[in-house]
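Incident review: delayed structure delivery

Summary: a single-chain prediction request sat in the queue longer than the usual turnaround. Root cause was a stuck worker, restarted by the on-call engineer. No data loss occurred. The affected request and its eventual output are reproduced below so the record is complete for anyone auditing the incident later.

Affected input:
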Amino acid sequence: MTDATFTLYPSDTLVAEVKASSKRQGHAEQTLKLSRMYRKERQMGLPLD
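Output delivered after worker restart:
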């Protein structure tokens, strides 16, 4: 049984922040000559402090 169903939509601000973050990450990878192919492995190795 479902009591309620919610649909969430991202705000324009959130979309802009996500795009800017992606652009910064891509620029950092390009500057450091890191392959995008190994992005997930690099992220999995980060500490969760």
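Verification: The chain is about 55% helix and 0% strand.
Action items: add queue-age alerting; document worker restart procedure.
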